[in-house]
UniProtKB/TrEMBL annotation, chains A, B:
Naturally occurring in which organism (per UniProt): Roseicyclus mahoneyensis
GO CC terms: cytosol
Pathway(s) of this molecule: One-carbon metabolism; tetrahydrofolate interconversion
NCBIfam families: PRK14186.1, PRK14188.1
UniProt xrefs under CDD domains: NAD_bind_m-THF_DH_Cyclohyd (cd01080)
Catalytic reaction(s) noted: (6R)-5,10-methenyltetrahydrofolate + H2O = (6R)-10-formyltetrahydrofolate + H(+); (6R)-5,10-methylene-5,6,7,8-tetrahydrofolate + NADP(+) = (6R)-5,10-methenyltetrahydrofolate + NADPH
Gene that this polypeptide is encoded by: folD
Protein name as annotated: Bifunctional protein FolD
Superkingdom field: Bacteria
EC number: 1.5.1.5, 3.5.4.9
Length: 299, 299
Protein backbone atom coordinates (compact mmCIF):
# COMPACT_ATOMS: atom_id res chain seq x y z
CA UNK A 1 0.00 0.00 0.00
CA UNK A 2 1.42 3.37 -0.94
CA UNK A 3 2.08 5.91 1.79
CA UNK A 4 -0.13 8.82 2.75
CA UNK A 5 1.37 11.93 1.19
CA UNK A 6 1.44 14.59 3.89
CA UNK A 7 0.14 17.83 2.41
CA UNK A 8 2.28 20.44 4.13
CA UNK A 9 0.91 23.21 1.97
CA UNK A 10 -2.66 22.59 3.10
CA UNK A 11 -1.60 22.07 6.71
CA UNK A 12 0.43 25.28 6.69
CA UNK A 13 -2.57 27.15 5.30
CA UNK A 14 -4.52 25.83 8.28
CA UNK A 15 -1.85 27.05 10.69
CA UNK A 16 -1.84 30.48 9.07
CA UNK A 17 -5.63 30.52 9.45
CA UNK A 18 -5.29 29.72 13.16
CA UNK A 19 -2.73 32.49 13.52
CA UNK A 20 -5.02 34.92 11.71
CA UNK A 21 -7.85 33.98 14.08
CA UNK A 22 -5.55 34.51 17.07
CA UNK A 23 -4.48 37.90 15.73
CA UNK A 24 -8.10 38.92 15.17
CA UNK A 25 -8.98 37.89 18.72
CA UNK A 26 -6.07 39.90 20.15
CA UNK A 27 -7.18 42.97 18.23
CA UNK A 28 -10.83 42.61 19.16
CA UNK A 29 -10.25 41.69 22.80
CA UNK A 30 -7.22 43.74 23.72
CA UNK A 31 -6.49 46.18 20.93
CA UNK A 32 -3.12 44.52 20.40
CA UNK A 33 -1.58 43.95 16.95
CA UNK A 34 1.38 41.52 16.83
CA UNK A 35 4.35 42.88 14.87
CA UNK A 36 7.26 41.12 13.15
CA UNK A 37 10.43 42.98 12.22
CA UNK A 38 12.69 41.49 9.55
CA UNK A 39 16.22 42.80 9.07
CA UNK A 40 18.05 42.21 5.79
CA UNK A 41 21.66 43.25 5.38
CA UNK A 42 22.92 43.42 1.80
CA UNK A 43 21.29 42.43 -1.46
CA UNK A 44 21.39 38.65 -1.74
CA UNK A 45 18.65 37.92 -4.31
CA UNK A 46 17.44 34.71 -2.62
CA UNK A 47 17.23 36.50 0.73
CA UNK A 48 15.23 39.32 -0.86
CA UNK A 49 12.71 36.78 -2.14
CA UNK A 50 12.41 35.13 1.29
CA UNK A 51 11.98 38.49 3.02
CA UNK A 52 9.28 39.53 0.54
CA UNK A 53 7.42 36.25 1.19
CA UNK A 54 7.63 36.76 4.94
CA UNK A 55 6.41 40.35 4.61
CA UNK A 56 3.40 39.27 2.53
CA UNK A 57 2.54 36.35 4.83
CA UNK A 58 2.79 38.58 7.91
CA UNK A 59 0.34 41.09 6.46
CA UNK A 60 -2.03 38.32 5.35
CA UNK A 61 -2.57 37.11 8.93
CA UNK A 62 -3.27 40.68 10.06
CA UNK A 63 0.05 41.40 11.78
CA UNK A 64 2.24 44.44 11.36
CA UNK A 65 5.36 43.85 9.27
CA UNK A 66 8.45 46.04 9.68
CA UNK A 67 11.12 45.65 7.02
CA UNK A 68 14.61 47.03 7.61
CA UNK A 69 16.99 46.81 4.67
CA UNK A 70 20.57 47.79 5.43
CA UNK A 71 23.44 48.29 3.02
CA UNK A 72 25.88 45.39 2.62
CA UNK A 73 28.67 47.38 4.30
CA UNK A 74 26.62 48.34 7.37
CA UNK A 75 28.94 48.31 10.40
CA UNK A 76 28.06 45.93 13.23
CA UNK A 77 27.47 48.89 15.56
CA UNK A 78 24.73 50.22 13.26
CA UNK A 79 23.08 46.80 12.95
CA UNK A 80 23.18 46.39 16.73
CA UNK A 81 21.74 49.88 17.26
CA UNK A 82 18.80 48.89 15.05
CA UNK A 83 18.33 45.60 16.93
CA UNK A 84 18.44 47.49 20.24
CA UNK A 85 15.70 49.83 19.02
CA UNK A 86 13.58 46.86 17.88
CA UNK A 87 14.18 45.11 21.23
CA UNK A 88 12.84 48.21 22.99
CA UNK A 89 9.91 48.82 20.61
CA UNK A 90 6.63 47.62 22.17
CA UNK A 91 5.01 47.29 18.72
CA UNK A 92 7.63 44.70 17.70
CA UNK A 93 7.04 41.22 19.16
CA UNK A 94 9.29 39.22 16.87
CA UNK A 95 12.65 40.05 15.30
CA UNK A 96 14.56 38.05 12.75
CA UNK A 97 17.69 38.85 10.86
CA UNK A 98 17.74 37.13 7.47
CA UNK A 99 20.88 35.00 7.11
CA UNK A 100 23.44 34.81 5.65
CA UNK A 101 24.81 38.21 6.64
CA UNK A 102 27.86 39.70 4.88
CA UNK A 103 31.23 38.33 5.98
CA UNK A 104 32.18 41.25 8.25
CA UNK A 105 29.17 40.47 10.47
CA UNK A 106 28.76 37.49 12.81
CA UNK A 107 25.53 35.48 12.81
CA UNK A 108 26.25 34.34 16.34
CA UNK A 109 26.78 37.84 17.70
CA UNK A 110 23.74 39.13 15.79
CA UNK A 111 21.44 36.46 17.21
CA UNK A 112 22.84 37.09 20.69
CA UNK A 113 21.88 40.75 20.38
CA UNK A 114 18.17 39.98 19.84
CA UNK A 115 16.05 39.87 23.00
CA UNK A 116 15.40 36.10 23.52
CA UNK A 117 11.71 36.91 24.10
CA UNK A 118 11.57 38.32 20.53
CA UNK A 119 13.87 35.69 18.95
CA UNK A 120 11.12 34.14 16.81
CA UNK A 121 13.68 32.10 14.85
CA UNK A 122 14.55 30.38 18.17
CA UNK A 123 18.26 30.58 17.37
CA UNK A 124 19.66 32.17 20.52
CA UNK A 125 21.69 30.36 23.16
CA UNK A 126 18.99 31.26 25.68
CA UNK A 127 16.20 29.66 23.63
CA UNK A 128 18.38 26.59 22.97
CA UNK A 129 18.95 26.32 26.73
CA UNK A 130 15.28 26.76 27.57
CA UNK A 131 14.36 24.05 25.07
CA UNK A 132 17.12 21.73 26.32
CA UNK A 133 15.97 22.10 29.93
CA UNK A 134 12.27 21.70 29.11
CA UNK A 135 11.35 25.30 29.87
CA UNK A 136 9.16 27.59 27.80
CA UNK A 137 11.18 28.60 24.75
CA UNK A 138 10.71 30.05 21.31
CA UNK A 139 11.45 27.05 19.09
CA UNK A 140 13.20 27.16 15.72
CA UNK A 141 10.47 27.31 13.04
CA UNK A 142 11.25 24.30 10.84
CA UNK A 143 11.48 21.72 13.67
CA UNK A 144 8.33 23.21 15.21
CA UNK A 145 6.60 22.76 11.84
CA UNK A 146 7.76 19.14 11.57
CA UNK A 147 6.44 18.46 15.07
CA UNK A 148 3.04 19.87 14.11
CA UNK A 149 2.91 17.62 11.04
CA UNK A 150 3.89 14.57 13.12
CA UNK A 151 1.30 15.28 15.82
CA UNK A 152 -1.35 15.70 13.15
CA UNK A 153 -0.36 12.47 11.43
CA UNK A 154 0.26 10.24 14.45
CA UNK A 155 -1.49 11.73 17.47
CA UNK A 156 0.64 10.70 20.45
CA UNK A 157 4.33 10.16 19.63
CA UNK A 158 5.07 8.56 23.01
CA UNK A 159 7.29 5.49 22.91
CA UNK A 160 7.99 5.73 19.20
CA UNK A 161 11.52 5.31 17.87
CA UNK A 162 12.54 8.53 16.17
CA UNK A 163 15.71 8.98 14.14
CA UNK A 164 16.89 12.46 13.17
CA UNK A 165 19.61 12.57 10.52
CA UNK A 166 21.56 15.81 10.90
CA UNK A 167 22.68 17.67 14.01
CA UNK A 168 22.60 21.37 13.13
CA UNK A 169 21.72 23.98 15.74
CA UNK A 170 19.04 25.27 13.39
CA UNK A 171 17.26 21.97 12.86
CA UNK A 172 18.61 18.60 13.99
CA UNK A 173 19.34 19.38 17.62
CA UNK A 174 16.08 21.23 18.39
CA UNK A 175 14.12 18.56 16.44
CA UNK A 176 15.66 15.88 18.68
CA UNK A 177 14.77 17.89 21.79
CA UNK A 178 11.16 18.26 20.65
CA UNK A 179 10.81 14.54 19.91
CA UNK A 180 12.31 13.74 23.31
CA UNK A 181 9.75 16.01 24.98
CA UNK A 182 7.07 14.02 23.16
CA UNK A 183 8.47 10.88 24.81
CA UNK A 184 10.03 9.37 21.69
CA UNK A 185 13.17 7.27 22.00
CA UNK A 186 15.39 9.58 19.98
CA UNK A 187 18.51 8.81 17.97
CA UNK A 188 20.61 11.54 16.38
CA UNK A 189 22.56 10.31 13.37
CA UNK A 190 24.96 12.33 11.23
CA UNK A 191 27.85 12.20 8.79
CA UNK A 192 29.98 10.14 11.18
CA UNK A 193 27.31 7.51 11.72
CA UNK A 194 28.80 4.27 10.45
CA UNK A 195 25.68 2.21 9.75
CA UNK A 196 23.17 4.81 8.63
CA UNK A 197 20.80 2.54 6.63
CA UNK A 198 20.51 0.22 9.62
CA UNK A 199 19.94 3.11 12.04
CA UNK A 200 17.23 4.57 9.78
CA UNK A 201 15.51 1.21 9.45
CA UNK A 202 14.71 1.25 13.19
CA UNK A 203 12.73 4.46 12.93
CA UNK A 204 8.98 4.72 13.39
CA UNK A 205 9.61 8.42 12.70
CA UNK A 206 12.43 9.24 10.31
CA UNK A 207 13.42 12.89 9.91
CA UNK A 208 16.04 13.60 7.25
CA UNK A 209 17.95 16.88 7.31
CA UNK A 210 21.32 16.12 5.81
CA UNK A 211 21.29 18.31 2.73
CA UNK A 212 22.27 15.48 0.38
CA UNK A 213 19.74 14.93 -2.37
CA UNK A 214 17.93 11.58 -2.33
CA UNK A 215 20.43 10.02 0.06
CA UNK A 216 17.79 8.15 2.10
CA UNK A 217 16.57 5.21 -0.01
CA UNK A 218 13.37 3.23 0.30
CA UNK A 219 15.18 0.19 1.66
CA UNK A 220 16.37 2.33 4.61
CA UNK A 221 12.77 2.96 5.63
CA UNK A 222 10.91 0.75 8.10
CA UNK A 223 7.60 -0.39 6.59
CA UNK A 224 4.85 1.91 7.80
CA UNK A 225 7.20 4.59 9.14
CA UNK A 226 6.40 8.29 8.99
CA UNK A 227 9.08 10.03 6.93
CA UNK A 228 9.72 13.78 7.18
CA UNK A 229 11.99 15.16 4.50
CA UNK A 230 13.59 18.48 5.44
CA UNK A 231 16.12 18.54 2.58
CA UNK A 232 15.89 21.01 -0.28
CA UNK A 233 18.34 20.71 -3.15
CA UNK A 234 17.78 22.58 -6.40
CA UNK A 235 18.76 20.55 -9.46
CA UNK A 236 18.37 20.99 -13.23
CA UNK A 237 14.96 19.87 -14.42
CA UNK A 238 15.32 16.52 -16.21
CA UNK A 239 12.91 17.33 -19.04
CA UNK A 240 13.11 21.11 -19.40
CA UNK A 241 16.55 22.63 -20.12
CA UNK A 242 17.14 25.87 -18.23
CA UNK A 243 14.54 25.03 -15.58
CA UNK A 244 15.23 23.64 -12.11
CA UNK A 245 13.29 21.59 -9.60
CA UNK A 246 13.60 20.91 -5.86
CA UNK A 247 14.37 17.49 -4.46
CA UNK A 248 14.62 16.29 -0.90
CA UNK A 249 17.03 14.19 1.15
CA UNK A 250 14.76 11.18 0.66
CA UNK A 251 14.49 9.21 -2.58
CA UNK A 252 10.75 9.72 -2.83
CA UNK A 253 9.83 7.08 -5.41
CA UNK A 254 11.36 4.21 -3.44
CA UNK A 255 10.41 5.53 0.02
CA UNK A 256 6.76 6.19 -0.80
CA UNK A 257 6.29 2.48 -1.52
CA UNK A 258 7.44 1.52 2.00
CA UNK A 259 6.54 4.37 4.34
CA UNK A 260 3.19 4.77 6.08
CA UNK A 261 3.25 8.53 5.48
CA UNK A 262 5.76 10.85 3.86
CA UNK A 263 6.23 14.55 3.16
CA UNK A 264 6.92 15.42 -0.48
CA UNK A 265 9.47 18.00 -1.66
CA UNK A 266 8.26 20.56 -2.50
CA UNK A 267 4.97 20.95 -0.64
CA UNK A 268 5.85 19.10 2.56
CA UNK A 269 7.93 20.70 5.31
CA UNK A 270 8.78 23.85 3.32
CA UNK A 271 5.48 25.72 3.71
CA UNK A 272 5.51 25.07 7.47
CA UNK A 273 8.51 27.28 8.14
CA UNK A 274 6.87 30.64 7.46
CA UNK A 275 3.62 29.44 9.07
CA UNK A 276 5.60 28.66 12.25
CA UNK A 277 7.39 32.01 12.09
CA UNK A 278 3.96 33.65 12.22
CA UNK A 279 2.88 31.28 15.00
CA UNK A 280 6.00 32.16 17.01
CA UNK A 281 5.35 35.87 16.55
CA UNK A 282 1.80 35.46 17.87
CA UNK A 283 3.13 33.38 20.77
CA UNK A 284 5.78 36.00 21.60
CA UNK A 285 3.13 38.73 21.50
CA UNK A 286 0.82 36.81 23.86
CA UNK A 287 3.69 36.18 26.30
CA UNK A 288 4.78 39.83 26.15
CA UNK A 289 1.29 40.83 27.25
CA UNK A 290 0.83 38.05 29.79
CA UNK A 291 -2.02 36.55 27.77
CA UNK A 292 -2.71 32.81 27.26
CA UNK A 293 -0.70 31.25 24.46
CA UNK A 294 -2.53 30.20 21.29
CA UNK A 295 -3.52 26.54 21.43
CA UNK A 296 -1.80 24.12 19.08
CA UNK A 297 0.73 26.67 17.84
CA UNK A 298 3.41 26.17 20.50
CA UNK A 299 5.26 23.22 21.96
CA UNK B 1 36.76 -12.87 28.85
CA UNK B 2 35.68 -10.71 31.76
CA UNK B 3 35.46 -6.96 31.27
CA UNK B 4 38.03 -4.39 32.30
CA UNK B 5 36.87 -2.83 35.56
CA UNK B 6 37.23 0.92 35.17
CA UNK B 7 38.83 2.32 38.31
CA UNK B 8 37.10 5.65 38.73
CA UNK B 9 38.69 6.24 42.11
CA UNK B 10 42.21 6.06 40.68
CA UNK B 11 41.24 8.08 37.62
CA UNK B 12 39.60 10.77 39.76
CA UNK B 13 42.74 10.97 41.88
CA UNK B 14 44.66 11.61 38.67
CA UNK B 15 42.25 14.38 37.69
CA UNK B 16 42.58 15.97 41.12
CA UNK B 17 46.36 15.79 40.69
CA UNK B 18 46.08 17.56 37.33
CA UNK B 19 43.87 20.21 38.92
CA UNK B 20 46.37 20.66 41.76
CA UNK B 21 49.18 21.09 39.22
CA UNK B 22 47.09 23.66 37.35
CA UNK B 23 46.35 25.54 40.57
CA UNK B 24 50.04 25.54 41.51
CA UNK B 25 50.94 26.88 38.06
CA UNK B 26 48.36 29.67 38.35
CA UNK B 27 49.73 30.67 41.73
CA UNK B 28 53.35 30.56 40.63
CA UNK B 29 52.83 32.23 37.26
CA UNK B 30 50.10 34.74 37.98
CA UNK B 31 49.55 34.96 41.73
CA UNK B 32 45.99 33.72 41.22
CA UNK B 33 44.25 31.27 43.57
CA UNK B 34 41.02 29.70 42.28
CA UNK B 35 38.16 29.85 44.77
CA UNK B 36 34.99 27.76 45.12
CA UNK B 37 32.00 28.96 47.13
CA UNK B 38 29.48 26.40 48.36
CA UNK B 39 26.12 27.52 49.71
CA UNK B 40 24.10 25.20 51.93
CA UNK B 41 20.60 26.15 53.07
CA UNK B 42 19.22 24.16 55.99
CA UNK B 43 20.59 21.14 57.80
CA UNK B 44 20.03 18.09 55.60
CA UNK B 45 22.54 15.57 57.03
CA UNK B 46 23.44 14.05 53.63
CA UNK B 47 24.00 17.52 52.17
CA UNK B 48 26.25 18.43 55.10
CA UNK B 49 28.40 15.37 54.36
CA UNK B 50 28.65 16.26 50.66
CA UNK B 51 29.54 19.87 51.44
CA UNK B 52 32.23 18.77 53.90
CA UNK B 53 33.73 16.45 51.23
CA UNK B 54 33.74 19.25 48.68
CA UNK B 55 35.36 21.64 51.15
CA UNK B 56 38.11 19.14 51.95
CA UNK B 57 38.74 18.28 48.29
CA UNK B 58 38.89 21.96 47.33
CA UNK B 59 41.55 22.68 49.96
CA UNK B 60 43.53 19.57 48.94
CA UNK B 61 44.08 20.86 45.40
CA UNK B 62 45.24 24.21 46.75
CA UNK B 63 42.11 26.24 46.03
CA UNK B 64 40.27 28.54 48.38
CA UNK B 65 37.02 27.16 49.74
CA UNK B 66 34.23 29.44 50.94
CA UNK B 67 31.42 27.78 52.86
CA UNK B 68 28.16 29.61 53.44
CA UNK B 69 25.63 27.87 55.68
CA UNK B 70 22.24 29.53 55.87
CA UNK B 71 19.32 28.71 58.16
CA UNK B 72 16.56 26.51 56.71
CA UNK B 73 14.10 29.44 56.82
CA UNK B 74 16.37 31.89 54.96
CA UNK B 75 14.20 34.07 52.70
CA UNK B 76 14.92 33.94 48.99
CA UNK B 77 15.96 37.60 49.06
CA UNK B 78 18.74 36.84 51.54
CA UNK B 79 19.95 33.83 49.54
CA UNK B 80 19.97 35.94 46.38
CA UNK B 81 21.82 38.77 48.13
CA UNK B 82 24.52 36.26 49.07
CA UNK B 83 24.69 34.89 45.50
CA UNK B 84 24.94 38.43 44.16
CA UNK B 85 27.90 39.12 46.50
CA UNK B 86 29.59 35.89 45.37
CA UNK B 87 28.93 36.74 41.71
CA UNK B 88 30.70 40.07 42.27
CA UNK B 89 33.59 38.67 44.37
CA UNK B 90 36.75 38.36 42.23
CA UNK B 91 38.18 35.73 44.61
CA UNK B 92 35.23 33.42 43.88
CA UNK B 93 35.46 31.63 40.52
CA UNK B 94 32.90 28.91 41.11
CA UNK B 95 29.60 28.94 43.01
CA UNK B 96 27.37 26.02 43.78
CA UNK B 97 24.27 25.79 45.88
CA UNK B 98 23.86 22.35 47.39
CA UNK B 99 20.49 20.85 46.45
CA UNK B 100 17.85 20.09 47.56
CA UNK B 101 16.96 23.47 49.03
CA UNK B 102 14.01 23.87 51.46
CA UNK B 103 10.57 23.91 49.87
CA UNK B 104 10.06 27.68 50.02
CA UNK B 105 13.05 28.15 47.68
CA UNK B 106 13.21 27.31 43.97
CA UNK B 107 16.20 25.41 42.57
CA UNK B 108 15.48 26.85 39.15
CA UNK B 109 15.44 30.44 40.34
CA UNK B 110 18.50 29.86 42.50
CA UNK B 111 20.55 28.45 39.62
CA UNK B 112 19.38 31.30 37.39
CA UNK B 113 20.75 33.81 39.91
CA UNK B 114 24.31 32.43 39.69
CA UNK B 115 26.55 34.08 37.08
CA UNK B 116 26.77 31.47 34.27
CA UNK B 117 30.54 32.02 34.18
CA UNK B 118 30.69 30.82 37.82
CA UNK B 119 28.04 28.08 37.46
CA UNK B 120 30.49 25.20 38.00
CA UNK B 121 27.63 22.71 38.33
CA UNK B 122 26.69 23.61 34.73
CA UNK B 123 23.00 23.69 35.62
CA UNK B 124 21.95 27.07 34.26
CA UNK B 125 19.84 27.59 31.16
CA UNK B 126 22.73 29.56 29.69
CA UNK B 127 25.21 26.72 30.12
CA UNK B 128 22.67 24.21 28.77
CA UNK B 129 22.22 26.45 25.72
CA UNK B 130 25.96 26.89 25.20
CA UNK B 131 26.43 23.12 25.35
CA UNK B 132 23.48 22.49 23.05
CA UNK B 133 24.82 24.90 20.44
CA UNK B 134 28.40 23.65 20.66
CA UNK B 135 29.77 26.76 22.32
CA UNK B 136 32.14 26.95 25.28
CA UNK B 137 30.11 26.02 28.37
CA UNK B 138 30.61 24.90 31.92
CA UNK B 139 29.42 21.29 31.78
CA UNK B 140 27.56 19.44 34.51
CA UNK B 141 30.16 17.52 36.57
CA UNK B 142 28.94 13.91 36.37
CA UNK B 143 28.54 13.77 32.57
CA UNK B 144 31.90 15.51 32.19
CA UNK B 145 33.42 12.83 34.43
CA UNK B 146 31.81 10.05 32.39
CA UNK B 147 33.19 11.57 29.20
CA UNK B 148 36.70 11.64 30.70
CA UNK B 149 36.43 7.96 31.63
CA UNK B 150 35.18 7.06 28.14
CA UNK B 151 37.95 9.01 26.40
CA UNK B 152 40.52 7.33 28.61
CA UNK B 153 39.08 3.89 27.91
CA UNK B 154 38.33 4.17 24.19
CA UNK B 155 40.36 7.03 22.74
CA UNK B 156 38.25 8.38 19.88
CA UNK B 157 34.49 7.89 20.33
CA UNK B 158 33.72 8.89 16.74
CA UNK B 159 31.14 6.75 14.95
CA UNK B 160 30.31 4.65 17.98
CA UNK B 161 26.70 3.92 18.89
CA UNK B 162 26.00 5.42 22.30
CA UNK B 163 22.83 4.86 24.29
CA UNK B 164 22.05 7.04 27.30
CA UNK B 165 19.24 5.76 29.53
CA UNK B 166 17.71 8.71 31.38
CA UNK B 167 16.94 12.24 30.22
CA UNK B 168 17.43 14.48 33.26
CA UNK B 169 18.73 18.03 32.84
CA UNK B 170 21.43 17.20 35.37
CA UNK B 171 22.79 14.14 33.59
CA UNK B 172 21.09 12.45 30.64
CA UNK B 173 20.61 15.43 28.37
CA UNK B 174 24.09 16.94 28.81
CA UNK B 175 25.64 13.45 28.53
CA UNK B 176 23.90 13.00 25.17
CA UNK B 177 25.16 16.39 24.00
CA UNK B 178 28.74 15.52 24.97
CA UNK B 179 28.60 12.18 23.16
CA UNK B 180 27.17 13.90 20.10
CA UNK B 181 30.05 16.40 20.15
CA UNK B 182 32.39 13.40 20.17
CA UNK B 183 30.69 12.21 16.96
CA UNK B 184 28.85 9.27 18.47
CA UNK B 185 25.49 8.21 17.04
CA UNK B 186 23.46 8.98 20.16
CA UNK B 187 20.19 7.48 21.35
CA UNK B 188 18.38 8.81 24.41
CA UNK B 189 16.17 6.18 26.04
CA UNK B 190 13.93 6.67 29.06
CA UNK B 191 10.94 5.38 30.99
CA UNK B 192 8.68 5.56 27.92
CA UNK B 193 11.06 3.57 25.73
CA UNK B 194 9.14 0.47 24.72
CA UNK B 195 11.95 -1.92 23.81
CA UNK B 196 14.71 -0.94 26.22
CA UNK B 197 16.68 -4.23 26.22
CA UNK B 198 16.85 -4.14 22.43
CA UNK B 199 17.84 -0.45 22.36
CA UNK B 200 20.60 -1.10 24.92
CA UNK B 201 21.91 -4.08 22.96
CA UNK B 202 22.86 -1.77 20.06
CA UNK B 203 25.21 0.29 22.21
CA UNK B 204 28.98 0.33 21.89
CA UNK B 205 28.75 2.79 24.77
CA UNK B 206 25.95 2.24 27.27
CA UNK B 207 25.39 4.89 29.93
CA UNK B 208 22.77 4.04 32.56
CA UNK B 209 21.26 6.80 34.69
CA UNK B 210 17.75 5.66 35.51
CA UNK B 211 17.91 5.40 39.28
CA UNK B 212 16.50 1.85 39.33
CA UNK B 213 18.82 -0.62 40.99
CA UNK B 214 20.23 -3.36 38.76
CA UNK B 215 17.67 -2.72 36.01
CA UNK B 216 20.16 -3.19 33.15
CA UNK B 217 20.95 -6.90 32.85
CA UNK B 218 23.88 -8.61 31.21
CA UNK B 219 21.77 -9.84 28.30
CA UNK B 220 20.98 -6.20 27.43
CA UNK B 221 24.68 -5.49 26.90
CA UNK B 222 26.36 -5.83 23.51
CA UNK B 223 29.43 -8.05 23.82
CA UNK B 224 32.49 -5.85 24.22
CA UNK B 225 30.53 -2.66 24.99
CA UNK B 226 31.76 -0.04 27.44
CA UNK B 227 29.22 0.29 30.25
CA UNK B 228 29.05 3.40 32.45
CA UNK B 229 26.85 3.02 35.50
CA UNK B 230 25.70 6.33 36.95
CA UNK B 231 23.09 4.87 39.30
CA UNK B 232 23.47 4.89 43.07
CA UNK B 233 20.88 3.13 45.19
CA UNK B 234 21.48 2.43 48.86
CA UNK B 235 20.16 -0.98 49.95
CA UNK B 236 20.42 -3.08 53.13
CA UNK B 237 23.63 -5.08 53.19
CA UNK B 238 22.80 -8.73 52.44
CA UNK B 239 25.17 -10.23 55.03
CA UNK B 240 25.38 -7.55 57.74
CA UNK B 241 22.12 -6.46 59.38
CA UNK B 242 21.95 -2.71 60.03
CA UNK B 243 24.57 -1.95 57.35
CA UNK B 244 23.90 -0.71 53.84
CA UNK B 245 25.67 -0.89 50.52
CA UNK B 246 25.48 1.00 47.22
CA UNK B 247 24.37 -0.63 44.00
CA UNK B 248 24.13 0.76 40.50
CA UNK B 249 21.59 0.74 37.69
CA UNK B 250 23.46 -2.14 36.06
CA UNK B 251 23.35 -5.73 37.29
CA UNK B 252 27.11 -5.94 37.64
CA UNK B 253 27.61 -9.71 37.90
CA UNK B 254 25.84 -10.46 34.64
CA UNK B 255 27.09 -7.38 32.76
CA UNK B 256 30.76 -7.82 33.65
CA UNK B 257 30.74 -11.17 31.81
CA UNK B 258 29.63 -9.54 28.55
CA UNK B 259 30.96 -5.97 28.53
CA UNK B 260 34.40 -4.95 27.30
CA UNK B 261 34.75 -2.46 30.15
CA UNK B 262 32.49 -1.43 32.99
CA UNK B 263 32.43 1.01 35.90
CA UNK B 264 31.69 -0.53 39.28
CA UNK B 265 29.42 0.97 41.95
CA UNK B 266 30.88 2.27 44.17
CA UNK B 267 34.28 3.34 42.85
CA UNK B 268 33.32 4.07 39.22
CA UNK B 269 31.57 7.28 38.23
CA UNK B 270 31.01 8.51 41.79
CA UNK B 271 34.51 9.80 42.54
CA UNK B 272 34.58 11.69 39.22
CA UNK B 273 31.89 14.17 40.24
CA UNK B 274 33.88 16.10 42.84
CA UNK B 275 37.02 15.83 40.69
CA UNK B 276 35.12 17.48 37.83
CA UNK B 277 33.73 20.14 40.14
CA UNK B 278 37.33 21.08 40.94
CA UNK B 279 38.24 20.89 37.24
CA UNK B 280 35.34 23.21 36.38
CA UNK B 281 36.40 25.69 39.07
CA UNK B 282 39.93 25.77 37.64
CA UNK B 283 38.48 26.20 34.13
CA UNK B 284 36.19 29.03 35.27
CA UNK B 285 39.15 30.74 36.97
CA UNK B 286 41.32 30.50 33.83
CA UNK B 287 38.49 31.88 31.67
CA UNK B 288 37.84 34.73 34.15
CA UNK B 289 41.48 35.76 33.79
CA UNK B 290 41.70 35.19 30.03
CA UNK B 291 44.27 32.44 30.52
CA UNK B 292 44.48 29.18 28.51
CA UNK B 293 42.18 26.45 29.76
CA UNK B 294 43.74 23.42 31.46
CA UNK B 295 44.30 20.59 28.98
CA UNK B 296 42.20 17.46 29.35
CA UNK B 297 39.95 18.93 32.04
CA UNK B 298 37.34 20.54 29.80
CA UNK B 299 35.20 19.44 26.87
Amino acid sequence: MAATIIDGKAFAAGVRGQVAAGVAALKAGHGIVPGLAVVLVGEDPASEVYVAHKHQATLEVGMRSFEHKLAADTPEADLFALIDRLNADPEVHGILCQFPVPDHLSERRTVARIDPAKDVDGLSVTNAGLLATGERALVSCTPLGCLMLLRDQLGSLSGKEAVVIGRSNLFGKPMAQLLLQENCTVTIAHSRTTNLPEVCARADILVAAVGRAEMVRGDWVKPGATVIDVGITRVPHPQTPGKTRLIGDVHFESAVAVAGAITPVPGGVGPMTIACLLANTLTACCRAHGLPEPEGLTV
